[in-house]
Design goal:
There is one protein chain. By secondary structure, the protein is an alpha+beta fold. It starts with a helix and ends with a strand. It is globular. Helix content is 19%, strand content 36%. The protein has 13 helices and 41 strands. An 8-stranded parallel sheet has the order 9-8-7-6-5-2-1-10. The protein has a 6-stranded antiparallel sheet with strand order 11-12-13-18-15-16. The protein folds into 4 domains: 250 residues, TIM Barrel, CATH 3.20.20.70; 92 residues, Immunoglobulin-like (Sandwich); 108 residues, Sandwich (Immunoglobulin-like); 141 residues, NPCBM/NEW2 domain (Jelly Rolls), CATH 2.60.120. The protein binds alpha-D-galactopyranose.
Length: 664
């Protein structure tokens, strides 16, 4: 972390503590800024998470075009926001007017705004309340230039201003933000005002349309108590201020990291689910020009966007916190509730909530219609809603109270299979069905989606013409992977049926590991369930590098090179679901030679939350330490590297040759 970041972290900590104190002493209702804008949470894209300061007009035009062609505009996204580094260096002309970088924005911001408007979109820009932005571009701050800059923004056709908090003058933060708010109010153009001061303060709802409640987000699930927050840290901070959210005034837990590669798909779905539940601004932060279909589907989930954009504008409340299992509820304008079941834990969890807990008053003759907003399918239930939620995943339902006779049926299903299998023997795969609903259902069918080259032999029927309420059935297959299949694979299961209200379809992906013929599996060939890493992402078959994915080198400890292994940075935690089928974990560990003799760490191996092995404190001057650990019966294998108690500088640690060996 740079000195600037550290200093910023301290300042933020002080201001967070102060604002917390302010909230505690002031109980008076806070008026929201009334500029008639952002009556629902703003939706758009911002350049920072994908490109940092590397922006130019060609790229921004292409992003705007991709916002239209990808379907994001149709889904409701509208602002294209230029973050830091759009300005010239120095940033002002002889008259003190802000000017764009003539090399990267040769046509100027007005022309860019016109183009973005011609696509039916809006444009946002970035400024700073101090003398310079956070990238320290000379004269780029608006301190003392508020009115002039607001006029410039209006002349250019700007629709949204993100106003940052670097290089500040004096110590009246609310005065600085208020001056810009007044300047915007007088500039002759409606401009949404986004306060970026890295933590809530009590005056913010009266001054801005949205305000950051967190430090900067990074592309990680959990970044501990650092100023830079992971997805789960941003949720926790942002929930503290739930009561301040209302039309025109929103808590902002920072932008999406969805699609940027540092988290699992389930973690990205949780970011989207919870930002929708929290009535947070939906600001994408990936390169829209080349996003994959999974990312596109997450960002354009219209049913979840409708929850986010609900006109009541209420942020969800956490109604249950059982440690790893949490339930959040958001009232919606038509009397429905959105209900999110969030699993913070490292094992799949069954989470259940009753209608009374959600907030429904019971009504004779009525039950509940639960629409799953990720599966886009619905079921009827007399009372409780439950779901098996994957590691770091979130299930979201829109629940309505409906007369029992109008409710559809419900066939629940569960898959029974080994999770680690061998290609030669094949394996048995069972789908258990159960009509847990209030109606009989017809034409239930179970179908599988297999990876290429795989075959499934049906051992039982997999279609059932009628299932009574309460009736159970099972469909069983023997699945044969092709001879040389190995590593991580996904088998999709789809269950369809019809009930009085129509056809339903539900699906689930099952993750399987196929053992290679020689019988050991390198961890770097498997996808972890979750990762946490001190700097940059966990690297596979290379050292840590520090920042971007794939920026490492050949793993080397004390001059010994390894082709396979994990390159991490303290503090690091990497979790694998290994299905209880292996006997031994083996690796050579040590600090990578890329940091010379610096760095010192401790390695730990955990199985199902029990510490199985711990190294001595190892530093950069030591050679590789071989280890073998008995992991018989272990399902969740967690590899931890701590900073050895002396801070994490230079702590580049390698799990060289990390592999799982089966029982003999
Ligand atoms: C701060 C903000 C970020 C981003 C950068 C740009 O860190 O919090 O969101 O705007 O500045 O320098």
């Amino acid at each position: 972390m740079s000195t600037r970041d550290r200093a910023r972290g301290t300042i933020v900590c002080i201001s967070l503590c102060l604002s917390l104190a302010l909230i505690l002493i002031s109980t008076a209702a806070v008026e929201a800024l009334d500029n008639g804008l952002a009556l629902t949470p703003p939706m758009g894209w911002n350049s920072w998470n994908a490109f940092r300061g590397e922006i130019d007009e060609v790229k921004i035009r292409q992003i705007a075009e991709a916002m239209v062609s990808s379907g994001m505009k149709d889904a409701g996204y509208e602002y294209i926001i230029l973050d830091d580094n759009w300005m010239a260096n120095p940033a002002r002309d002889a008259d003190g007017n802000l000017i764009a970088d003539p090399r990267r924005f040769p046509s100027g911001i007005k022309a860019l705004a016109d183009y973005i408007h011609s696509l039916g979109l809006k444009i946002g820009i970035y400024g700073d309340r101090g003398t310079a932005t956070c990238m320290n571009i000379p004269q780029s701050g608006s301190y003392g230039y508020e009115e002039q800059d607001a006029r410039t923004f209006a002349e250019w056709g700007i629709d949204y201003l993100k106003y940052d908090n670097c290089n500040t003058v004096g110590n009246c933060i609310s005065c600085d933000y208020k001056r810009m708010q007044e300047a915007l109010a007088d500039c002759g153009r409606p401009i949404v005002y986004s306060i970026c001061a890295w933590g809530f303060q009590a005056w913010m709802p009266e001054v801005g349309n949205l305000w950051r409640t967190t430090g900067d987000i990074v592309d990680k699930w959990d970044n501990g108590s650092d100023w830079f927050v992971g997805i789960i840290n941003a949720i926790d901070l942002n929930m503290r201020y739930a009561r301040y959210a209302k039309p025109g005034a929103w808590n902002d837990p920072d932008m999406f990291v969805i699609g940027n590669g540092g988290c699992t798909v389930e973690e990205y779905k949780t970011q989207f689910s919870m930002w929708c539940m929290m009535a947070s601004p939906l600001i994408a932060g990936n390169d829209l020009r080349n996003m994959d279909e999974t990312t596109r589907q997450i960002l354009t989930n219209k049913e979840l966007i409708a929850v986010n954009q609900d006109p009541l504008g209420i942020q969800c409340t956490k109604i249950r916190d059982d440690g790893d299992e949490e339930v959040y509820v958001k009232p919606l304008s038509n009397g429905d509730y959105a209900v999110a079941l969030l699993n913070r834990g490292e094992e799949e969890a069954l989470i259940r909530v009753t209608a009374a807990e959600i907030g429904f008053a019971s009504r004779p003759g009525y039950g509940y219609l639960a629409r799953d907003l990720w599966q886009h399918s619905e079921f009827g239930t007399a009372d409780a809603i439950e779901a098996v939620v994957p590691v770091h995943g979130t299930a979201v339902f829109r629940v309505s109270q409906v007369p029992v006779e109008q409710l559809p049926g419900h066939v629940a299903f569960a898959v029974e299979t080994d999770t680690v299998v061998s290609a030669e023997a094949g394996f048995k795969f069972t789908v258990h069905l159960s009509n847990t609903g209030l109606k009989d259902v017809e034409d239930t069918a179970v179908t599988l989606r297999l990876p290429e080259g795989w075959e499934a032999e049906a051992l039982t029927a997999n279609r059932f013409s009628h299932l009574d309420v309460g009736e159970e059935a099972a469909a069983v297959w023997r699945i044969m992977p092709p001879p040389h299949a190995e590593g991580f694979n996904v088998v999709g299961v789809m269950v369809t049926y019809s009930d009085s209200a129509g056809a339903r379809s539900w699906s689930k992906d099952v993750r399987l590991v196929v053992l290679p013929p020689e019988g050991s599996v390198y961890l770097s060939d498997l996808k972890p369930l979750s990762t946490r890493n001190g700097w940059g992402p966990v690297e596979f078959d290379q050292s840590n590098g520090e920042t971007a994915a794939n920026d490492g080198r050949v793993i080397t400890i004390g001059g010994v090179q390894y082709n396979k292994g994990l390159g991490v940075h303290a503090h690091s935690e990497v979790v694998y679901d290994i299905g209880g089928s292996f006997a031994t974990f083996a690796a050579d560990v040590g600090v990578d030679d890329e940091v010379g003799s610096r760095g010192s760490v401790v390695f730990q191996v955990w199985g199902d939350n029990v510490k199985l092995w711990e190294s001595q404190r190892l530093d950069g001057s030591m050679g590789p330490q071989p280890l073998t650990v008995d992991i018989s019966g272990v399902r969740m294998l967690k590899l931890v590297v701590t900073d050895g108690g002396d801070g994490n500088a230079y702590d580049h640690a390698d799990w060289a040759g990390a592999r799982l060996l089966p029982r003999q």
